[in-house]
Design goal:
CATH topology of the largest domain: Jelly Rolls
Number of strands: 11
Largest sheet: 6 strands, antiparallel
Order of helices and strands: EHEEEEEEEEHEHHEHHHHHHH
Radius of gyration: 19 Å
CATH architecture of the largest domain: Sandwich
Number of domains: 2
Length: about 280
């Protein structure tokens, strides 16, 4: 089995590696001598950690403990960020934070957490700032880089435990198939009987199992994924609001606008204008 060493991968003085990767890409089963965070910028694919299959979707953050075997496949539209580190980057009074991410603490991080559309820009901004500082030549670069890194982990820890999101600590292979199916069919009508059939469970039990393992009801999960897909289309495509409503499975534009505003706090048109302005300002 392949084993990747942090000291071989890193290009900076700190024991920290940040990689921004794009699909299509298959990474065969392997392990690291470090903790790995995998953040999905956008797109879809799947990831198997210690043999358990999870879908990879926009906003997902995987925390892969030290020594865990994993493999993943990225679809053509998927972009993701890998962050690898070990305990030596932490001061003595910060070791508990390391243990939370390495799976060694009682208050350990979930194996997977999904950030909603409202938090995705902030976590990306923090990662970009850290990545920029990692290779900076400015004075006291190692001090600021380490500070940004610890700040990122604290941000992730707080929101994973105290903010709305989707936690899937021990999602089963059967539910992984269902989540993958949902991701591929957001533009279609998704019925409970059909999803239960894919999972291999009876409809009533499937609904209870899904809520227990994923943390939200099936209908709520589907709506949140459709809104995330709509956010991506509004930012990156020139499609009309009607077209995006159809392609994300809402079919009724007025219902789409109402649901989008409930989740994001603004209408789809306002969201698009705000996102485009941010893109122009950053150039």
């Amino acid at each position: 089995m392949l084993e990747y060493k942090l000291d071989v991968l890193r290009a900076a003085a700190l024991p920290l590696v940040i990689q921004r990767l794009k699909a299509p890409h298959y990474q065969e089963i392997h392990l690291h001598d470090a903790v790995e965070l995998v953040y999905i910028e956008h797109g879809s694919g799947w990831c198997a950690v210690n043999g358990i299959i999870h879908p990879m979707l926009t906003g997902d953050l995987y925390i892969i403990p030290l020594g865990a075997t994993h493999e993943y496949y990225c679809e053509k539209d998927l972009s993701y960020i890998n962050i690898l580190f070990n305990s030596s980057i932490f001061r003595e009074d910060e070791q508990e934070l390391y243990r939370a991410f390495s799976g060694q603490a009682a208050d350990r991080m979930p194996d997977k957490y999904t950030f909603g559309p409202d938090l995705q820009p902030e976590i990306l901004s923090r990662i970009d700032a850290l990545n920029g500082e990692l290779f900076s030549q400015e004075p006291y670069q190692p001090i600021r880089c380490r500070a940004l890194f610890v700040e990122l982990l604290v941000f992730i820890f707080r929101y994973a435990f105290h903010a709305p999101g989707i936690r899937a600590s021990h999602a089963q292979i059967h539910l992984g198939r269902v989540l993958g199916y949902i991701a591929d069919h957001l533009d279609a009508k998704l019925s409970m009987p059909r999803l239960a059939e894919i999972s291999g469970y009876k409809t009533d039990y499937f609904g209870k199992l899904f809520r227990r393992e994923i943390g939200v009801a099936v209908s709520e999960y589907i709506r949140s994924r459709r809104i995330e897909r709509a956010c991506y289309e509004l930012e990156h495509a020139d499609k009309s609001i009607d077209e995006i409503a159809q392609e994300t499975g809402f079919f009724d534009t007025s219902y789409f606008i109402k649901t989008f505003k409930k989740y994001c706090g603004v209408t789809p048109l306002h969201f698009r204008r705000r996102s485009r302005k941010k893109q122009e300002d950053s150039r």
